[in-house]
Amino acid sequence: MTTDARTHSWRRQVRRLGGRWIQRLGLLPAGVPDARGDDAALVAAGPMTEQVIVYFGSTQESVYQLEQWLPTLEQLDATHPVLVVTADSRAARRLREVTRLRVVTVSRYATFDDMLAGSDARLALYVNHHVQNFSLMRFASLTHVSLLHGDSDKVVSVSNQAKAYDFTFVAGRAAVDRLDAHLQHFDAADRCVIVGRPQAAPAPRPRHDGDPITVLYAPTWEGAQTSAAYGSLPTHGLALVRAVATDPGLRLVYRPHPLTGVRSSDYGDADAAVRSEVTETGGRISTGGPLGEDFAAADVLVCDVSAVAVDWLATDRPLVLTQPGDADTAAMRSALAQAVTRLPTAGAPEAAALLRREVELDERAAARREVAEYYLGDIEPGSAARRFLEACESILAGAEPLTVAAAARDVDSSRA
Questions:
Q1: What is the 3 state secondary structure string of 311-352?
Q2: Residues 230 and 189 in one domain
Q3: Are 186 and 58 members of one domain?
Q4: Among 23, 53, 206, 400, which lies 20 to 30 A Cα-Cα from 189?
């Protein structure tokens, strides 16, 4: 062996050993899978026995994206066994704490060959557009379906990556129109199946005289890139909390996004300042619990352009949407933004009076209900879960799910 070859081999061994220690000590950068998989055991076990794979390529910071789907996936598992596959053992550990579904970690690309060869798996579901998805999407024996983790007017909702999937399950007509308007060479009607949002459901909240008005402030994070930055924490957060605190008839609940501050120190600093102010003024900070519980306890929501805003529409209660500095963004021209009250940065210090008026008068109720149907369709409890299960059942039976185009053809046929 030459001196150069020996040097190269030595460096390779050092990198390998260094990588192992970085994994063991948990020193990996945020968002990087730890590659500590169950591969050997999975290969030894032979073909998987489940019919459905839910693939999650992100790390534990983003587990919330999959958690919201777990109750519905557990319903699917009752008739068609579901396997959750992660790329990160820490994410898998978290998921095992909150679901009865089998959860494994695959760190080697080739492991899927052993798992799928000779198996009955026919359907793969994805809750984000992580680049790791392609490690499974190469298999033509599976029907690949994008679920995403919510519907919103964010630019990421119309990613060109939607073309990679066989079908996209969407919440309502708004998502179909959005994809049609923004994606080139993509027929949304042929690729989209409207299933609703199983996570979004009516949440009656009777109020009694003398009860404080509960304001839920649930801003989004800073986004992975500048074009997807919709968060209001640095511009609205502190002023909004202080404004609510000036009115003894208002009570604030602050629910930060799980990814707040992972990319931007400005958002991290703003989050810390808001948390401190909420604590000092007697409000409540909500982290970790189900979003539905905060929805059920709130009278009005203040949030940014996000899936939280769309899910809230099912509650039939007032919504105030924060307005970025540039009011003429595509998101601010959306049907939702036009139907609800908006809060510019300059209005945050005086938000108490606006929020009280929203709850007491609810002048935009009719417009909000109309837009709720456009974004979510039928919100009767159980309706969305049923449509989701029916769509999965069709695929597993070897048929096509009821796409928007197929549904339109059925309507035309019934009228003929």
A1: HHHHHCCCEEEECCCCCCCCHHHCHHHHHCEEECHHHHHHHH
A2: no
A3: yes
A4: 53
Mean pLDDT of 13-42: 65
- What range does the domain containing 95 cover? 39-194
Mind listing the pLDDT tens digit for each residue in 168-201?
Answer: 999 999 999 999 999 999 999 999 999 999 999 8
Question: Are the C-beta atoms of 272 and 158 separated by less than 8 Å?
Answer: no
Same-domain status, 182 and 307: no
Rounded (10°) CA dihedral 162, 166, 167, 168 = -20
Could you give the number of structural domains in the chain? 2
Has residue 409 been placed in a domain? no
- The pLDDT tens digits for 239-278 are 999 999 999 999 999 999 999 988 889 999 999 999 999 9
User: What does the alpha-carbon distance between residue 153 and residue 306 come to, in Å, rounded to a whole number?
Assistant: 7
Phi, psi of 82 (to 5 degrees): -115, 135
410 falls in which pLDDT band (50, 70, 90)? Answer: confident
Give the Cα separation of 168 and 195 in Å (integer).
Answer: 10
Q: Do 303 and 276 share a structural domain?
A: yes
One domain for residues 108 and 238 = no
Which residue in 205, 98, 195 sits closest to 151, CA to CA?
195
Q: Are residues 222 and 334 in the same domain?
A: yes
- Distance set, CA 260 to CA 61, 271, 309, 324 (Å): 10, 7, 17, 17
Q: Which of 382, 350, 398, 405 minimizes the C-alpha distance to 120?
A: 398
Report the C-alpha gap between 392 and 50 in whole angstroms: 14
Question: Residue 74 CA to chain centroid, in angstroms?
Answer: 18
The CATH number of whichever domain residue 368 belongs to comes to 3.40.50.2000
pTM for the model stands at 0.89
Distances (CA, A) of 13 to 19, 20, 41, 108, 110: 10, 11, 25, 19, 23
Higher-confidence residue of 279 and 330: namely 279
Kindly state whether residue 105 falls inside one of the protein's structural domains. Answer: yes
- Whether the predicted pLDDT of 11 surpasses 50: no
H-helix or E-strand spanning residue 168: strand 167-170
Q: Are residues 48 and 178 in the same domain?
A: yes
Give the integer Cα–Cα distance in Å for 364 and 313: 12
Helix or strand or coil: residue 179?
A: helix
The CA distance from 148 to 66, in Å, is 9
pLDDT at 10: 53
